[in-house]
Design brief:
Length: about 210
């Protein structure tokens, strides 16, 4: 399960009371619930929680980010791996495995932010250099393309067999040969662009105004 910190406030993270005007479960609880296969799995300790954009809390430097950072530092203490949910009015235990993801080196950030040093000392830091071409190809054909095609098939009647087709797959292959992005965002954007172009063709063929 993944929680992104981009633009998050404390209320976004932990939620607000169910009976309040803007009652919401919060990003942490939403992530836990969406990844829970059984209603009997009450502790969720066997899940993996990935907190994305963690480094943005230090880069932003605003009060909102500082408050979320302070909350997470307490949350990541192995002796208190739980938070109180005002939505459910109970303590929620977090998974035993938590991954912090970002684009900055946490060790270097901790040198500039002493409050991080205790936490960083408990982490196993993994540097990811990026996906190689074969890994990108596998992800493209096994995950990205099928998901994009399925999404476009749901647009409406008449598009149930939507596909990038052989020409689209050849374009993806050509893109993979030149893509220098260590991640997958460029690839995802390219596949979405191909799908949108294919949809435009279908609109024209069917005489539909986009």
């Amino acid at each position: 399960m993944t929680v992104t910190l981009d633009g998050a406030t404390i209320d976004d993270m932990v939620g607000t009371p169910f009976e309040s005007f803007d009652g919401k479960a919060g990003r942490l609880l939403d992530a836990i619930i969406s990844s829970t296969a059984s209603s009997r799995d009450l502790n969720h300790h066997n899940q993996i929680l990935m907190i994305d954009e963690f480094d943005r809390l230090m880069i932003s430097g605003d009060k909102q980010s500082e408050e979320v950072l302070s909350f997470l530092l307490k949350l990541l203490d192995p002796n208190s791996r739980y938070f109180y949910s005002p939505y459910l009015k109970t303590d929620i235990r977090l998974p035993d495995t938590i991954i912090l993801a970002g684009n900055s080196n946490l060790q270097e950030l901790s040198d500039r932010h002493p409050q991080l040093q205790a936490m960083v000392s408990r982490l196993s830091i993994v540097h990811f250099d990026g996906f190689d071409r074969e890994a990108k190809r596998a992800i493209a054909y096994e995950s990205i393309i099928p998901k994009v095609e399925a999404g476009f098939r749901s647009i409406g009647v008449g598009y149930g067999d939507f596909s990038l087709g052989e020409e689209g797959r050849q374009s993806v292959e050509a893109f993979l040969q030149s893509d220098t992005d260590p991640g997958l965002r460029s690839l995802e954007k390219y596949v979405h662009g191909l799908a949108e172009a294919q949809l435009q063709k279908l609109y024209l063929q069917n005489g539909i105004q986009p």
